[in-house]
Write a structure and sequence with these properties.
27% of the residues lie in helices and 38% in strands. The protein has 415 residues and is an alpha+beta fold.
């Protein structure tokens, strides 16, 4: 019986050994999301821009949370007489984490508005002004709200359009959508009693679409703004728990639906989408009297890299136009070194400077040449695992052999 337990003992010992080694792979590298900052944007080709951007990392408490400060000063000059010009400051955030903008023109406060953009992908942070949508919703845009009351576990709903097909809709937890040609939609809801009713808000005049259902429904014509306001008020307690979401965000999303002739689920619009990272733009229009200075300060996200023997911070600043920018990087005593940069930098104490008309990326930290511990782990861990496993296995086999010999001798003596 003791001999039969030997394989179990070997398996248990080897399992514990390997378990203690292999977590190195999982924890060898931890990176936070890379969220770039952007330069001032102006679509007018007649506008000459020259920038000074300062990155301030002297507040070590903020830096420990992955936050730095950017102070931007742009000198703008019009090549020809123009009464007004529109500018934009691109930035990435969720709908509930929009930073506070305090933009100054020649020392005077400027009023602007956030135009919300598309959800960003981590592989593409390219700015396109056409992908930002106005937070001002026309009061004259109307729609029809259909409230479908289920009369069975399975119901069907159909919706067809002549041209435009923008709408916001609800579904059951088991539903299927089929599209029969352009502008023709049909839903099958299973487990329909999971909700007391299902709302479909169809934008545009009711004569431009045809709505039908296998069960009773009510309809009400209202302005799009009234519909958004009612939903916003009913969910305000939820938004307040998350720090608040501006109603302008939903106006912007509806404007996108109208421009793109598209549709969206109710939960996606009013619940899930508020946490998506978006490439937005703070837009403002100002009068330019030949020359002017635009300045503002914003918090920026600093990437923290944990794969070295000391923490490495990195920042990326994307250009939005063909103009030169002078950069100043203010470091701190705990992190006094620029480790790498795509543009040559000049260092004087804790101040580093650079100049370019391209994107500017740099990393800084506590040591000038940090050791990449992930490389050491990747190169040496396989050898360590093999050697350690062999040693343990040999030790176990020796113990097993000794136990077996002793057991056999004891058995022979007992005979």
């Amino acid at each position: 019986m003791k001999n039969k337990k030997i394989p179990v003992i070997i398996f248990t010992v080897l399992s514990i050994t390997l378990y203690s080694v292999f977590p190195v792979f999982a924890n060898a590298q931890t990176l936070s999301k890379r969220i770039p900052t952007y330069g001032l944007y102006c679509a007018c080709s007649e506008m000459v821009i020259d920038g000074d951007v300062s990155f301030d990392f002297t507040d070590t408490e903020l830096l420990s949370h992955g936050i730095g400060l950017k102070e931007a000063n742009y000198r703008v000059t019009a090549n020809k007489d123009m009464s007004k010009a529109e500018f934009a400051i691109p930035f990435i955030s969720t709908a509930r984490e929009v930073p506070q903008f305090n933009v100054m023109l020649n020392g005077q406060a400027v009023n602007g508005a956030v135009w919300f953009g598309n959800q960003t992908l981590e592989t593409d942070y390219s700015f396109d002004i056409e992908n930002n949508f106005s937070p001002i919703l026309d009061d004259n845009i109307i729609g029809t709200l259909y409230s479908v009351i289920p009369n069975g576990e399975i119901i069907t709903i159909s919706l067809s359009f002549k041209e435009n097909n923008s709408f916001i809709y609800e579904t059951s937890n088991e539903s299927a959508l089929s599209q029969m040609g352009k502008g023709n939609y049909c839903w099958t809801f299973r487990n329909a009693f999971s909700k007391p009713y299902y709302n479909f808000f169809v934008l545009g005049d009711f004569t431009e679409h045809l709505f039908d259902s296998s069960c009773e429904y009510r309809s009400e014509i209202m302005t799009c703004k009234d519909y958004i306001c009612k939903q916003y008020e009913s969910l305000k307690y939820y938004y307040d728990d998350y720090g608040g979401v501006p109603i302008d965000y939903f106006y912007s999303e509806v404007n996108k639906l109208l421009l793109r002739n598209s549709y969206i689920k109710y939960d996606e619009l009013f619940l899930y989408s508020i946490d998506y990272l978006r490439l937005n733009a703070y837009k403002f229009i100002v009068a330019i009297d030949r020359e002017a200075v635009i300045n503002y300060t914003l918090p920026i996200t600093v990437q923290r890299n944990y794969i070295s023997n000391s923490l490495i911070y990195s920042v990326e600043h994307k250009q939005t136009g063909n103009y030169k920018t002078d950069y100043t990087v203010k470091l701190n005593d705990d992190n006094p070194y620029i480790i790498e940069s795509n543009i040559k930098t000049e260092k004087s104490g804790l101040i580093c400077t650079a100049e370019t008309s391209e994107d500017f990326c740099f990393a800084f930290g506590a040591t000038e040449k940090p050791i990449d511990t992930s490389a050491n782990v990747n190169d040496g861990v396989s050898k360590t695992v093999v050697i350690f496993s062999i040693v343990i296995t040999c030790a176990v086999l020796i113990v097993v052999a000794i136990v077996t010999i002793v057991a056999r001798r004891q058995k022979n003596l007992n005979r």
